[in-house]
Write a structure and sequence with these properties.
The protein has 977 residues and is an alpha+beta fold. It is 42% helix and 19% strand. The N terminus is likely disordered.
């Protein structure tokens, strides 16, 4: 579910200072023959146009990379679903990828009568109650769909987007919106507009019954998701009349099983009209040129009158409403209050209050609950929709703690707030931290278009000036206002949802209908697509890194220093990258966790967190398998304070036995919770398949060893961390010389680094025979992952692997997706990739995945195995995949800290230069024969480990034994504790 958060971006960068702007006023201007509105001091520089047909177009130029982000948003979602056809807006979103009468089809004149028949059959189906008759009608739907598929071209839209360089085709539906998401190279603007204009001109709802099956799978995945169930049932209580609580985006099972293509068409015709839509672009373009092209492409759209959802006001909530939910995941408690409409003073207050309660450092929940380890986890946030918001407090109880006790601790923090027992400086600090957090976001085109479309959905963009002014308005709020409002708002008028660990006996999954695979016609191309491919495109030259020029190398004592100068704004990021990780010392991750709860000889833990929050800076100590990092970031003007405070903490932190005892209890509780997480279980199974019983996933201290950890052991690691070999990296406004001068004052180094214990080595398994690794989990779905180790890293294979993955199983236009989901409707989510290691002495792995209904598991495995053994040839798909792979490199611009990260990544793989140079050169001569040979050599007719997570009640042991020797692993074997 998508969270609507207030957009806090109200500042411009001048030199090294963040200057708040106090005036955001609408203005009107004309340029290039078009009139537009804009808001003064808008950091996105957005222009808002209204075309003659009522279509809103927002343009936000940003020329730092040759890419454009795009969103097309419609102000219609599940709120506007008919009461008798919930889930309809979401169905429609899926169908808007299927084409029109011009693409997605080989012969629409022959296809149309069959599609009309399918539509008519669905009307009969949904109005028939007799089971035998329904089965008969569905059989006819299935038969006619197969006939219609003789003419359809599955995923042609995705292929066209891929051909022009698109990398992120997607969409989402929510309560009051449906949003279509794309990015594309700026040199493909004409192709992109031609495709999008055609896409929404007159969509054809083809390949419907297999796509509907994908929606069934999506519904069943939701039934396996405890947090999804918590949200759905909580909203039902908070909104007893509003569609926020009465209609879910995915729809009811009954409505999913009885769809109507007639109703979907009516919905499209009613809401997908230009006066209810926005096209938002952010990126590399000239606004005057682009608006002309957009106007020409979408001029065919005609405005129509329509009515959006206009609910009656909800009655005030009174009393405490309790919900109890069972499920296999860890227990939790959620306290939810109904909030206010967007862009109201009350919503702004609630957004501010959520940060005063929980901001990650100095909030009341942070200081009083998380720092003191009174719960396993806790937080607060405000979720904003158009008509109302939802204020949420949540917590996971610690070991031996009841849900009710955790709830009381949350409400105690609200009572502290209501009494005014918090520092007023939190208001100013919250605003400053919001500004810091969003400073870099303005460079991200995706952030710009998401912000603009969100504003359009909520109020047609009319309050953009007010939204921009939110931080300034928030900064003026007084402590008294917060106290008065909190006492008025936080009463016994909430919904408390207890998520218990246990079996949910209320689940009724969407049953699998009988579906005959449809043809995808992957080798065919429509006339429209051929014309699109033939459109002239001016090439974009790739820009590769030259590490000798793009990086600055220096020294601070015996430590290497690498810097990149930030010439855009005043943000810095400093990292100490240590050549030591948990594989060198298993205690190190626990030392990092312990540090967060320690005081020093000068400051308490609370004072430390408040100091960082007040100067809008952050520090973190993270431990990976092979490296540990200390990272400090914030505004350069506070560099000295932040670095000095961090160095002080590491040098002078003191033992806290009570904190260590509580930490150990939380670690044990976290371990218990991990064993209830199906994603973690599947990850553990996969690592077991890759390395065997002794593997990186279960390489951890035993419970007994953790019990015996002492403060002395952990403090020794913390106090001496700087004595281990490390590299200092810096991205910020300072030059190399100026930075090294500054850092030498704060970061003291030894005369020689302390040698670290050699890292633990793990041996890869040899997958000589098929095997099944099974873990039992209470779920509706089954999750299957294939794994085969496939040899040590070879840099000469990089281009071939990139192209193979793109063609075979790495996206919606891939062979795997088209076959498993589009043709056979066996899964909502599926992929298959040849996975490259991150270090030259590690191995490749062939990894495939299908998540399907348990009763379709055997079909899904058979479908994937067929593709693993036999690679279909689709020449156009191959050409598109190759072009997309080249385009991705040509348009990729690695900047900022990314240059340093790329350098380290290439170093690990043995490169002394930008590895993309080799990959780009290697891609150009590749043919399908090369990919076919790669598939036959590395993938086809090989033995695999099948990692399966499913419920023993829903899958049969005899079935799994068909794939190999079955080993049912215990959670202790998987997790190592």
């Amino acid at each position: 579910m998508k969270h609507k958060l207030l957009l806090l971006f109200c500042f411009l960068i001048t030199g090294s200072s963040v200057m708040a702007q106090s005036t955001y006023q609408w203005k009107t201007a004309s340029s290039g023959g078009y009139t537009y509105k804009y808001v003064t001091n808008d950091p996105t520089k957005a222009r808002f146009y209204t075309l003659k047909n009522g279509l809103t177009v927002a343009l936000s130029p940003n020329t730092k990379e040759p890419i454009i982000e795009f969103r097309l948003a419609v102000r219609a979602g599940s709120n506007t679903d008919p009461k008798t056809a919930t889930g309809l807006a979401h169905y429609l979103e899926h169908m808007l990828f299927k084409g029109t009468d011009k693409f997605g089809t080989m012969d629409y004149a022959k296809e149309k009568p069959l599609l009309d028949k399918i539509s008519s059959l669905y009307e009969q189906y949904r109005n028939t109650t007799d089971p035998a008759k329904r089965k008969e009608i569905y059989a006819e739907i299935d038969k006619t769909s197969g006939e219609a598929s003789n003419y359809s071209i599955a995923n042609e839209y995705d292929k066209m987007m891929k051909s022009i360089g698109g990398q992120s085709t997607n969409a989402h539906t929510w309560y009051e919106e449906t949003v279509y998401k794309e990015d594309f190279p700026s040199n493909a603007t004409d192709q992109f507009l031609a495709l999008q204009a055609e896409r929404f001109r007159s969509p054809v709802f083809r390949i419907f019954h297999t796509e509907l099956e994908a929606v069934y799978e999506e519904k069943n995945r939701g039934l396996d998701n405890d947090s999804w169930k918590v949200s759905e049932l909580t909203f039902a209580k908070l909104f007893p009349t509003h569609n926020y609580g009465q209609q879910t985006t995915i729809g009811t099972i009954e409505h999913l099983k009885n769809p109507s293509l007639v109703e979907i068409r009516k919905y499209y015709n009613k809401y997908y009209v230009p006066n209810n839509m926005i096209l938002a672009f952010a990126g590399d373009f000239n606004p005057d040129d682009l608006i002309k092209k957009v106007d020409q492409a979408f001029a065919y759209m005609k405005p129509k009158p329509f009515e959006l959802y206009n609910p009656a006001p909800e009655k005030p909530l009174s009393g405490i409403q309790r919900i109890d939910i069972n499920g296999p995941s860890a227990e939790s408690v959620r306290v939810s209050y109904r909030g206010y409409a967007e862009n109201t003073t009350q919503s702004m207050l609630l957004d501010l209050i959520s940060s005063i309660l929980s901001n990650g450092k100095a909030g009341l929940i942070d200081i009083n609950l998380k720092q003191q380890q009174k719960v396993q986890a806790a937080g607060a946030y405000y979720q904003q929709m158009k008509d109302y918001g939802v204020f949420v407090l949540n917590a996971q109880p610690k070991q031996g703690q009841s849900l009710e006790e955790a709830q009381k601790l949350l409400l105690d923090q609200v009572n502290i707030l209501k009494k005014g027992n918090f520092d007023e400086s939190l208001i100013k600090a919250t605003v400053a931290n919001s500004k810091l957090g969003l400073l870099e976001a303005f460079d991200k085109n995706s952030f710009r278009v998401e912000s603009i479309t969100n504003e359009f959905i909520l109020n047609r963009g009319q309050n953009w000036d007010k939204t921009l002014n939110t931080p300034d308005a928030m900064a003026k709020i007084t402590k008294k206002q917060i106290i008065d409002f909190a006492n008025q708002f936080f009463k016994e008028n909430y919904v408390v949802t207890y998520k218990h660990k246990g079996e949910d006996k209320s689940i009724a999954k969407v049953e699998k209908p009988s579906i005959t695979p449809v043809k995808t016609n992957a080798t065919e191309t429509s006339v429209f697509a051929k014309n699109l491919y033939a459109m002239p495109v001016k090439p974009i030259a790739p820009k590769f890194l030259d590490y000798k020029k793009d990086l600055n190398f220096g020294k601070n004592g015996i430590a290497d220093v690498i810097t990149v100068q930030n010439k855009d704004n005043s943000i810095f990021s400093l990292t100490y990258k240590f050549d030591i990780g948990s594989w060198n010392n298993q205690m190190l991750p626990y030392a990092a966790q312990y540090l967060a709860f320690l005081s020093t000889d000068k400051y308490s833990t609370e004072e430390i967190n408040k100091q960082f929050y007040n100067i809008a800076c952050n520090y973190s100590f993270n431990v990976g398998n092979e490296n540990a990092t200390i990272t400090i970031s914030g505004l350069q003007e506070n560099f000295d304070k932040a670095v000095s405070l961090t160095e002080h903490i590491f040098a002078n932190c003191k033992p806290n036995e009570q904190a260590l005892s509580e930490l150990k209890n939380r670690i044990f509780k976290g371990r218990d919770n991990n064993k209830l997480n199906k994603a973690a279980i599947l990850g553990g199974l996969t690592t077991y398949a890759q390395y065997g019983a002794n593997n990186p996933f279960n390489y951890t201290l035993s419970d007994e060893a953790i019990k015996n950890i002492t403060s002395e052991q952990l403090l020794s690691l913390i106090h001496n961390i700087n004595n281990y070999k490390h590299t200092i990296t810096y991205y910020g406004p300072k030059t190399l010389d100026a930075f090294t001068t500054d850092i030498s004052k704060s970061h003291k180094l030894p005369n020689a680094f302390t040698p670290s214990t050699p890292a633990k080595k793990f041996n890869y398994t040899s997958t000589n025979t098929n095997q099944v690794l099974f873990a039992d989990y209470d779920m509706v779905q089954s999750e299957v992952r294939w794994l085969r180790n496939s040899g040590t890293y070879d840099p000469s294979q990089a281009a071939k692997i990139t192209l193979f993955n793109s063609y075979f199983g790495g996206g919606m236009g891939s062979i795997v997706f088209q076959t498993i989901r589009e043709s056979k409707a066996l899964a909502y989510s599926t992929f298959a990739v040849f996975s490259s290691p991150d270090k030259k002495d590690k191995e490749y792995a062939m990894v495939a995945y299908v998540g399907s209904q348990a009763d379709k598991m055997n079909e899904a495995i058979a479908g994937m195995n067929e593709l693993l053994n036999n690679l279909p040839q689709a020449d156009k798909s191959f050409d598109v995949s190759k072009g997309n792979a080249l385009n991705a490199i040509e348009t990729n611009r690695i900047t900022k800290e990314g240059i340093i990260n790329a350098y380290f990544s290439d170093q690990k793989l043995g490169f002394d230069h930008d590895s993309r140079i080799d990959e780009y050169i290697g891609l150009k001569p590749l043919t399908f024969a090369d990919i076919k040979a790669f598939h036959e050599q590395k993938v086809a007719n090989k033995t695999y480990s099948y990692c399966i997570v499913a419920s023993e009640k829903n899958v049969k042991m005899d079935d799994m034994q068909k794939y190999g020797t079955v080993t049912k692993l215990t959670l202790e074997q998987i997790f190592g504790y």
